[in-house]
């Protein structure tokens, strides 16, 4: 995308479309994680309609709920939400972010280990986590035809989120963003780590906001974060053997609060701009009810159609001069205006 200079596509990624996409994707993530909150063993649905099919399966198997996981989930979500609310309310007074997630993981692991929740109540736990590094290996080119369909929307989504976040913080801190340069950066962040079995990389809103709020300005902060992850990979991973999967699901679900809160903004958005509200609703619904990939495509196309439709009926006003002034107003909305000759 960078070689082909496709940075101009950022023009078509409108704010309502991106917000709708983020909310729809959050609904999908919440749905996928919901089974862990209840301790249900439901196969993950692949294809269209993941949200609908998964919730149907959850309600069909609701009688198999593991009450140990359910109680753990309720406690963890309460603590995590309380921590987030305190963080938001007193963020000006707090010098560093509250490590709520870290405390929850540590306490939950200790309790699960000494109470033997897996043996006593059949609670689902993380199990053995391998430590160390996997040796570098050339990616399997035979897999590319099977991955191409998923890779294209991943690339577009990564670019969309990265550029939108970049522009948000660029406006706040007074610098400019070059979309094609961002594409090159994201590309290298994924091509080079592909030899080391790494996950797909993109910008992260929560981490970016935390770093910005604590005064980070350079990549040194990322080096510190990487060193902490390195310690976990090399030494601390075995300590998380007894960690319940529902605890990890709780952390993921609570992190979606920002995107899910967008539902509360719909009435206000409808009053301010019905077109933008409809774009949000269409993108969110298609992303949640059909699939993430198709939802993104539908959102972009529908947003462009709305722009084209609006340009077909532009508002044209004939202005008249207010007597004895240099001001002009719409002739249809005001009386006693003097039309300008010709």
Automatic annotation (TrEMBL):
Kindly list the residue ranges recorded as spanning the membrane.
151-170, 182-206, 226-256, 277-305
**GO cellular component terms attached to this protein's record:** membrane
Q: Which region is the signal sequence?
A: 1-24
Give the location in the cell: Membrane
Provide the SLC26A/SulP transporter domain boundaries. Answer: 3-283
Tell me what topology the record assigns in the membrane: Multi-pass membrane protein
Q: Which domain of life is it from?
A: Eukaryota
Question: What is the designated name of this protein?
Answer: SLC26A/SulP transporter domain-containing protein
Q: Which Pfam families match?
A: Sulfate_transp
PANTHER family hit by this protein:
SULFATE TRANSPORTER
Record's keyword terms, sorted: Membrane, Signal, Transmembrane, Transmembrane helix
């Amino acid at each position: 995308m960078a070689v082909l200079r496709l940075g101009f596509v950022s023009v078509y990624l409108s704010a309502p479309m991106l917000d709708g996409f983020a909310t729809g994707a959050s609904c999908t993530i919440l749905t996928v994680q919901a089974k862990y909150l209840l301790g249900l063993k439901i196969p993950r649905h692949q294809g269209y309609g993941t949200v609908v099919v998964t919730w149907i399966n959850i309600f069909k198997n609701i009688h198999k709920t593991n009450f140990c996981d359910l109680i753990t989930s309720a406690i963890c979500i309460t603590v995590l939400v309380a921590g987030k609310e305190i963080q938001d309310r007193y963020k000006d007074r707090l010098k560093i972010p509250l490590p709520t997630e870290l405390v929850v993981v540590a306490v939950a692991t200790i309790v699960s280990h000494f109470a033997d929740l897996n043996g006593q109540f059949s609670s689902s736990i993380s199990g053995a986590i391998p430590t160390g590094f996997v040796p570098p290996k050339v990616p399997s080119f035979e897999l590319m035809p099977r991955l191409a369909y998923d890779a294209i929307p991943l690339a577009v989504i990564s670019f969309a989120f990265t550029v939108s976040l970049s522009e948000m913080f660029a406006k706040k801190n007074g610098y400019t963003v070059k979309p094609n340069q961002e594409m090159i950066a994201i590309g290298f962040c994924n091509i080079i780590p592909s030899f080391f079995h790494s996950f797909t990389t993109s910008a992260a809103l929560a981490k970016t906001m935390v770093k910005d709020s604590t005064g980070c300005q350079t990549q040194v902060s990322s080096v510190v974060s990487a060193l902490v992850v390195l310690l976990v990979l090399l030494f601390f991973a075995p300590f998380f053997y007894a960690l319940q999967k529902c605890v990890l699901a709780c952390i993921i679900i609570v992190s979606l609060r920002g995107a899910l809160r967008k539902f509360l903004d719909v009435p206000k958005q409808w009053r301010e701009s019905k077109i933008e509200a409809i774009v949000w609703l269409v993108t969110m619904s298609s992303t949640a009810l059909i699939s993430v990939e198709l939802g993104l495509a539908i959102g972009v196309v529908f947003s462009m159609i709305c722009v084209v439709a609006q340009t077909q009926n532009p508002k044209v006003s004939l202005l008249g001069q207010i007597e004895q002034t240099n001001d002009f107003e719409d002739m249809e909305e005001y009386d006693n205006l003097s039309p300008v000759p010709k």
